[in-house]
Amino acid sequence: MSAERANRYGVVPTEIAKSMSGLQLLTSILEGTLPEPPIQQALDFRLVQVERGYVAFAGTPKFEYYNPIGSVHGGYAASLLDSCMACAVHSTLETGLSYSTLEIKINYVRAIRSDAGALRAQGRVIHSGKRIATAEGRLVDSAGKLYAHGITTCLILSL
């Protein structure tokens, strides 16, 4: 990521978001035309792939994310999975539509430590209806080792 790009964080204005499909909006964030959300700066992860019904984020866990028991806090995995699953849903939405997460369920398979290296959160839509969409996500390392997986249910809304 370039130094210029690394400092481009913000919230997409509603009027701009309303004028784009979910796929267009996410692609614009990936390409740097629109700003990355502030959560990506806070947890140092980035959008790396967008297709209709599929989104991936990448991040490297840090010691600063540790909990009192000596591993990365589960909220880190949950944040990456929530992001990839919800954005996978968003990538299927037509212009003028948005979503709200109704529920997420995360299963932690193994502890994440700061020496895990780069992790990839991959979200894929299972079902996209007029009012409800579901998606699944997987958090894996570069060798494909699974650290956590989850499922989300999102409510489809008009902007």
Q: Please work out how many helical segments DSSP would assign.
A: 5
Strand order of the largest sheet: 1-2-4-5-6-3
Can you identify the CATH class? Alpha Beta
**What is the CATH-assigned architecture?**
Roll
Low-confidence stretches: none
Q: Structural class of the secondary elements?
A: alpha+beta
Structural features, described:
This protein is an alpha+beta fold and 159 residues long. The chain has a single domain, classed as Hotdog Thioesterase (Thiol Ester Dehydrase, Chain A, Roll), CATH 3.10.129.10. It contains five helices and six strands, in the order ααααββαββββ. The longest helix has 17 residues, at 74-90. It is globular. 33% of the residues are buried.
Q: In summary, what is this structure?
A:
By secondary structure, the chain is α+β, with helices and mostly antiparallel strands. The protein contains 5 helices and 6 strands.
Descriptors for this entry?
single chain; 159 residues; alpha+beta; six-stranded antiparallel β-sheet; 5 helices; 6 strands; globular
List the helices and strands and how they pair.
Layout: H1 3-6, H2 14-18, H3 22-31, H4 38-42, E1 45-51, E2 54-59, H5 74-90, E3 97-108, E4 119-128, E5 132-141, E6 146-158
Antiparallel strand pairs: 1-2, 2-4, 3-6, 4-5, 5-6
